Structure formats: structure tokens, C-alpha cells
Amino acid sequence: MKVIVVGSSHGGYEAVRGILQEAPETEIQWYEKGDFISFLSCGMQLYLEGVVKNVNDVRYATPDTARAQGVDVFVRQEITAVAPLQHEVTVHDLNDDTSRTEHYDQLVLAVGAEPAKLAVPGADLANVYAMRGRDWAIRLKAKTVDPDTANVVVIGAGYIGVEAAEVFAKAGKHVTLIDILPRALQLYLDEEFTSRLTETLVAHGITPAMGQSVEEFTGKDGQVAGVLTDQAEFPAELVILSAGIKPATHWLKGAVELDAKGLIKVNDYQQTSAADVYAVGDATLVPYAPVGGKQRIALATVARRQGRTAAKNILGQRLKMPSVSGSSALSVFDYHFASTGVKEGTAAKLGIAIKSIYVEDAARPAFVPDAAGNAPVYFKLTYAADSQRILGAQIMSKVDVTANINVISLAIQGKMTLSDLAYADFFFQPGFDRPWHIINVAAQQALLGKTTVKAE
């Protein structure tokens, strides 16, 4: 059997890895249109801040390690067309500008997404960057030490935008963070959390410009010089675009079925509308555990599960893609937060009635000093208004308590309720936790009808 995998990031890598683990004799051709396979954009901040020294280390695999396992790796070779009836793809070799046809028995499309561009005047000026992929990582790294770059404007206040803002603030630049939404990180956290994080951003020299729409990039001598919004103008020698992504699927029209947003339609087994063609990653929707249906969740963990699901089905094992809750985490200077599932800010769009309880407590008993790992913890638990089924949660602290969100992810997947969590068994040791875990406290107090609980 010959399997062609298009794309080398999370989903493509996992599809290759999954096939190799169970059927290493399979003929696998792995295509990447860039010159570098399996770069992890989620690790870019670590490189930009110098935690990881070599940009080439921010990856899953190298061509040599893949080839040593029998995989035919092709870099700078772009798949430009798929002919499903013929089971063929067209390959454009960017090295010598030639094209050829390759036959496949099974095809995996891990084509991913690309940064969304702003259709405003000046978008083609120099020094308007993205924060996605190895090439941009190298260019951004140079800007962190560029003495001529004093003002940086980041457009988009999601995970990527906040990471970019933190990187350049730590590098001594004046940073403005712009978003059309009222709050930074609004899609991931409710206001109890974002208000604290906004204070932190300001304290570290970042200017939040929320609720503003970009109208123009102003320039001088072909270089970007500023960003004009509907409310103000901000100087900028560097602009970083992180205002969302769009699926890289325009070339697949007519080959597989796409939805109105260009996402590849897949069934529960990652199969597309075309026989023997699978799709995984950011260009697809995934089953959503809290309320059913499908959502777009562009996370590495999701893409890896999709890649493994595709591999299993290619090998004849009937496996459905498991439902997910969109669990994720991030550090913003001293704070560490994680969230999963439904929030107050997303419930209306999902069309569900929810209730929440917000708890402030300490990470350790009161006698444990801050220097030994004690700090306030902020936790919010969201549940169905009628059934009290757990639907989501958010947690944040200056000590790392983010792993607790995995408990909620499992609770969502297991359709657990407040009653299930109220007296669930968690360990206690003063150096780690409190006798009643904050999840217990939240569920117990929610059963009493409370919506807010402060530390005793």
C-alpha cells in the first residue's frame, strides 16, 4: 500500500507516525512545500525568548530520521492538485520548477491553515510580519534585537498575539496590542480572568487597544511606520499579524467537498467526500464534547488525534475521532492559565443555557508561605443550567495549576455533573494542595446555589 501525506506539521506528522508504528512496511511519501519539515509554531515563543537556542530544534522530526524509518520525504515539493478518481496527485517540484504525477492508494491531507491577511491600505508594506512557521520565526528573532525597531504593533489578541506582545515587551520594545474584540484573550477566558491579565500586560509596558478596527497601515519609504485604527494611530516599525487563520484549501475545490468557509468536510473517521482521501488538522472541524456537533479547534492536540485516527482507519481499524473540549493553556508573564469547553463568553453562540461559579482560593494551606509555592488561585466552573452537567472551566494562578483543567476535560467527556465532582477523590499534601480541592469547593458551592466564593 502506498500512502501520500501532504503537510508535515502536527496532523501530518502523527499520520506518518501512526502508520509506521503498526505497519512499518507501508510505502509512505511525505510532502512539505517548505524547506523544513514539522516546525512547531506553538514552540516559537520559546525560541524567540532564547529558552530554545536553535530554531531547527523546534520540530518533531527531521528528514533523516524519517528516511531512516523508510519514509520518502520530499521538501520544497508542493501538491497542487488531487484527482480522486484516478488516485493521483500533481507534484510541483519547487527546486527545478518541474511537475509530475504520483499515484496513491490512500491520501492524507494535512494542509493546515495560513495567517489571515487584512485587506487594508498598506498591507504590502515591508516589516508587516506573521507569527507562523520557521521562516517568520527567524525574521522575528532578528527584530527582537534590531535597534531600529522601537515600536511594535501586534494585531490580534488571541494566544499568538499575546505571545508576540510578551516576546517584544521582554525585548525592550514598546508594544501595542490591537483587537476588534473588547478584551484580550476573550475567546479563551471570561472577564474575571482577562481583567487581571490586562492589568499584567499594562504593568509590563504593553498598551492594550481593544475594541478597535484596523483601517490602514501607514508607511514611509516602503516601510511600515504606523497603524491607523478607527480610534487612534500607533507608531510601528514592525507590525505582527495574528488576526486569525484561514484554511489553505483553495486548491482543493472540486477534489473534495468544502464548506462555506473553505474547511474540508470529514466524517467521524476523518474521511473526506473522496474515496481513500482523509483530512486532518486546522482545515477541518472536530466533534465537540461539551454540547455535541462539530467546532473548529485549531490545536496541536486535536490535530495529533486526527492524524492518529486517520492512520488507524487507513490500516483497516475502524476508529472514530474522539470528541474534544478544546483544552489549552498559556503563560502571560507571571500568570499561568488553562481553559476547556464552554465559557460564559461562548455559550450564547452555542445556543445553550449555562450557569457558572467563580472561586478564589489559595493553592496551599494558609501556613504555607508564598515563597514555598503558595499563591491565589482563580477558578471558574461552567455547567448546564438544567442537568448540572459539567461543560467547561477556567483556572489561573501565579503558581502552575494548569494541569487541573485536564480533570475538567475528562469530566466533560464522561458527562459528569456537579454532584460527581463535589466529593470526587483528590489527594492532599500541604506542599501541593488543600484538603478540599478547588474543584470540590466549586462543585459543592454551586450545588448550594452560589455563584461566587472567596477564600476563607
Automatic annotation (TrEMBL):
One of its GO terms (molecular function) is peroxidase activity. Keywords: FAD, Flavoprotein, Oxidation, Oxidoreductase, Peroxidase, Redox-active center. This is NADH peroxidase. Pfam families: Pyr_redox_2 (PF07992), Pyr_redox_dim (PF02852). The keyword Oxidoreductase applies. InterPro entries: FAD-bd_OxRdtase, FAD/NAD-bd_sf, FAD/NAD-binding_dom, FAD/NAD-linked_Rdtase_dimer_sf, Pyr_nucl-diS_OxRdtase_dimer. Residues 1-307 form the FAD/NAD(P)-binding domain. Gene3D superfamilies: 3.30.390.30, FAD/NAD(P)-binding domain. Coiled coil: none annotated. Residues 331-433 form the Pyridine nucleotide-disulphide oxidoreductase dimerisation domain. Belongs to the class-III pyridine nucleotide-disulfide oxidoreductase family. Transmembrane segments: none annotated. Its cofactor is FAD. It comes from the Bacteria.
